[in-house]
Amino acid sequence: MSGISSGGYRTTQYKRWASLRRNTGFRSQFEADIHAGLPEGSARYEAVHIPYKVSVQRRYTPDWALPAQAIMIEAKGRFTKADRDKMLLVKSQFPDLDIRLIFMSLTAKVTKTMTHEAWAKQHGFPCCKGPAIPADWLEHKPSKQQRAAFDAFVSY
Prior knowledge:
- With 156 residues, the protein is of the alpha/beta class.
- Helices cover 38% and strands 12% of the residues.
């Protein structure tokens, strides 16, 4: 590795792996060598895909909490797939928590055909175009379930 920085070495190594994959179909020379040692036609490389679940506990931190209204507010310019997945997980685990989205643009696309606003409505998240917060949000009177869900996370 003399004369080559660790970043340069990695780049060189990735190029070597990519070339091997293109030329042989295997991820490494080791895999190619194992395949060469198997009787012809006796095994299929990467022919099976086995799904598995990963369970990791995370924390969601809303941008603002409105205690009088028992509302959580999340502001979004970009609304990535990871953001959308997170919001759906939080909503599924805490269905009584009132989470509202403020978007920089309601018409920005989350998919080729779906806008921020359409996604929010489809999944039951009240939303608006920011930066202003709608007056009716500020005048909202929470239900007992919304208040309890909010109070479970917010200390005054």
